[in-house]
Amino acid sequence: MDRIPILKLGDALLVTIQVDMHDRLATALEEDLTTKIVDFGAKGVLIDISALEIVDSFIGRMLDNIAAVSRILDADTVVVGMRPAVAITLVELGLSLSGVKTALNVERGMALIKSRLEEFDADDED
Amino acid sequence: MAANETTTLAALVGDNEKQIVPEWLELQKRTGVLQTGRITEAELTSQSTEFLHLLRNGLANGGVEISNTAYTPARDFLSNLSRSRALQGFSPTETATFVFSLKQPLFNWLNRDKSVTPADAAKIIWAVTILLDGLGLLTFDTFQKSREEVILRQQREITELSTPVVKLWQGVLALPVIGTLDSERTQVVMENLLQHIVDESAEIAIIDITGVPTVDTLTAQHLLKTVSAARLMGADCIISGIRPQIAQTIVHLGVDLNVVSKATLADAFAVALRRTNRAVVKLKTAKTYNGQPKAPAEGGE
C-alpha cells in the first residue's frame, strides 16, 4: 500500500499530498504523522494540499483530527495551498477547520511555524 | 370525423389562400402593429402567407391536435415568430393577435361556402377554435419563455459586472459588493475572490459592503462563508462599510459575525497595511512635480 511521505525539516514536519486521497490513505497518514511527531518531538506540522483537487467530509475531518492530535502533542498544524474549489467545498460541508492554521503557500506556512519556534527559543532562554 | 372537418377546412384554405391573407392582414393592422415601426408591411405579409401555407399543410394531415407531427413546421414557425417578436419588444397582445385574428377570416369564408351544411359548419368552427387556441397558447408560451431568457441573461450579466476584485496593494485585495447578496451571487463572488487570492497571493482581503442595501440572516451567512473559505486558503478577511442601520439589523438578528470589521474601506486598508508591516507616512519636505524641492519663497509652509 502506498503511503504519503513525511519529511523532517528542523523542528517541523512537512507533508505534501500529491495524490488524490482515499480513506485508507488518510487514516494511514493520521497514524504515521502522530508517531512521527512523538518520535522527532516536532513543534510544527505543515500539510501542503496544493495538489489536492477533490475533498470530501472524511478528508476534511481528517485534517481537523490531525490538528487536534498535534495540538495535544504540542505541535502546530498549518494547512497550506488550499485551492479555491476545495475551500468552497469544505465551507459548504460546514467544516471551517477552526483549529487549523492556514497559509497561502509553503513559504508562508514555514514562516508561520518558524515564528512560533522562535517564541519557544525565547522562552527557553528565559 | 375530426379529420374530415380539417380536410374540408384545408381545401377551403387552399382554394382561397389569396383572399384570406388580405382579410387577415387587415385585422392585424387594426391592432396598430404597423404603427409601432417594429415590423414592415412586407414582412407581415410574408409571415402571414407562410404561416397560412404551413397551417394548411397541417390541416390536410394533422386533425385537430396541434401536437400532431403534421403541425410541426407550423409550430416551429410560430415559435420562431413569437421569440423574435418578444426580443423586438412587441406586446403580448400584439404577438397573440397574429394567431387569434386568423379566426375571423376563416369563419367568413366558411359562411360564404354554400356547400357546407350548418351542422358541419358548427363542427368545423369548433375544430378551428380548438386549433387556433392551441396555437395561440403556444405563442404565449414561447413569448413568455423568450422574455424570461432575456431576464436571465441580464441577471447573469449584472452578476458578472458588479463583482470586481480590486488589488489595493501588494497582497491586499478589496471586493466592493454592490447590490443584494443572494446565494447564486455569493457563489460567483466567492469563487472570484478566492481565485484572485491565489493569483495575487494576497494575505488580506477586504470585503466592502457599502453598496449592500440590506443584510438579512442569509446574507450574513453568505458573508461568513466567504470569510471562512478565504481563511481556509490562508488569507485574512476584513469586512468594511457596514452602515449604522445594517449594524443594528445584524445585532437584532443575533448574527455573530465574528470577523474583523471596520467602518470604512480606508480604516480597513489601514489595518491591512499594518498587518503586512507597512505604513503610509507623510513626506516631510513638500516637493514639486519634477522632484525639485520648492523654493522657500514660494512654499506656503
Can you lay out the helices and strands and say which pair or pack?
The complex is a heterodimer of chains A (126) and B (301).
Chain A: E1 6-9, E2 12-16, H1 23-40, E3 44-48, H2 57-72, E4 76-80, H3 84-92, E5 101-103, H4 106-125
Parallel strand pairs in A: 2-3, 3-4, 4-5
Antiparallel strand pairs in A: 1-2
Chain B: H1 2-30, H2 41-62, H3 72-88, H4 92-100, H5 103-112, H6 118-161, E1 166-169, E2 172-178, H7 183-200, E3 204-211, H8 217-232, E4 236-240, H9 244-253, E5 260-262, H10 265-275
Parallel strand pairs in B: 2-3, 3-4, 4-5
Antiparallel strand pairs in B: 1-2
Helix pairs in contact in B: 1-2, 1-5, 1-6, 2-3, 3-6, 4-6, 5-6, 7-8
Can you put this structure into words, describing what you see?
The complex is a heterodimer of chains A (126) and B (301). Chain A is α/β, with parallel strands linked by helices and 126 residues long. Chain A is built from four helices and five strands, in the order E-E-H-E-H-E-H-E-H. A five-stranded mixed sheet of chain A has the order 1-2-3-4-5, sandwiched between helices. In chain A, helix 1 packs parallel to helix 2. The model of chain A has no long low-confidence stretch (mean pLDDT 88). Chain B is 62% helix and 9% strand. Chain B contains ten helices and five strands, in the order H-H-H-H-H-H-E-E-H-E-H-E-H-E-H. The mean pLDDT of chain B is 83. Chain B has two domains: 2-158, Globin-like (Orthogonal Bundle); 166-275, STAS domain (Transcription Regulator spoIIAA). In chain B, helix 1 crosses helix 5 (103-112), helix 2 packs antiparallel against helix 3 (72-88) and helix 5 runs antiparallel to helix 6. Chain B has helices at residues 2-30, 41-62, 72-88, 92-100, 103-112, 118-161, 183-200, 217-232, 244-253, 265-275, and strands spanning 166-169, 172-178, 204-211, 236-240, 260-262. The A-B interface holds A 79-84, 86-88, 90-92, 96-97, 102-105, 108-109 and B 187, 190-191, 194-195, 197-198, 201-203, 225, 228-235.
